[in-house]
Amino acid sequence: MNQSPYVTLTVLGEIYGVSAQEVGRWLKGMGYRLEDGWPSHLAVKDGFVREQALEHGGYFWTWHREKTCHELDMMGYARGGLLPKIEQHDGFTLIRA
Question: Would you say residue 1 lies in a domain?
Answer without folding.
Answer: no
